[in-house]
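Work package 3, deliverable 3.1, input record:
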Amino acid sequence: MSCKELVELVTDYLEGSLSWRQRRRFEKHLSLCHGCVAYVEQFRLTLRTLGRLGEEDVSPAARAELLAAFRDWKRA
Amino acid sequence: MDLHPPSDPLAEGREEELVAALKAGDEAAFAALVDRYQASLVRLARMYVRDRTTAEEVAQETWLAVLNGIDRFEGRSSLKTWLFRILVNRAKTRGQREARSVPFSSIGDGDEPAVDPERFQGEGEPHPGGWRQPPARWDGDPEERLLAGETRALILDTIEQLPPNQRAVITLRDIEGLSSEEARNVLDVSETNQRVLLHRARSKVRRALEAYLGEAK
């Protein structure tokens, strides 16, 4: 497996969807290649950062409006 | 600090109770749902409609649809999947009227390498397919750097420019944290297709970050 091939398989690797053989080849390549280790680490950091982008609060105005709509719904 | 104390109605396994509370008109249950999902709904709606105000309207319509439909909710999918699915369908309809939305899988699905092919050695070089110049480690405290305002804006901007199908998948999977099965239920995209779209989208975000962090040094 070349570096160029490996970079196309990172999501499949992380999702656990590589075949057993491919997984072995992927991991063997990583054990020998610093460049690809750095690449996979960048990829993981990207995912961790994406996962934290979602931390966001509801605006108080929108929240109040939704709760008012809830009370209307309840009365109906 | 326990983020899910026992009284948290959204803690895992308590969905049935939450649905029952909603059916009974329990405002605290509704408020908990709003706090948990409103920001996600607005963000998802933004994938299909032009501006934030419209996205907020679509989110509000979704909540009303949820309340009006809660008696028919049978729990075959999770409440979250159901909620997101209603939102996506409404936002799509709205987006089509605005002509922002592009039919699923119509663009950007050609062959797109994860990394610029120029970064790899070609035939006739010592290691064909090997890095010419390997990626550098993102040093310092990369996570902190990555979450700084400017980087955050860069990531959101990169996602905004993705083809709609890639944007939808990366938003659901990586920002909202849905499983591939949940995302399949929301978007009707097979898991295989999803992985392809996800890989392209993630690769582009990584690329944008690499370029940015490389420059910033």
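The radius of gyration of chain B is 21 Å.
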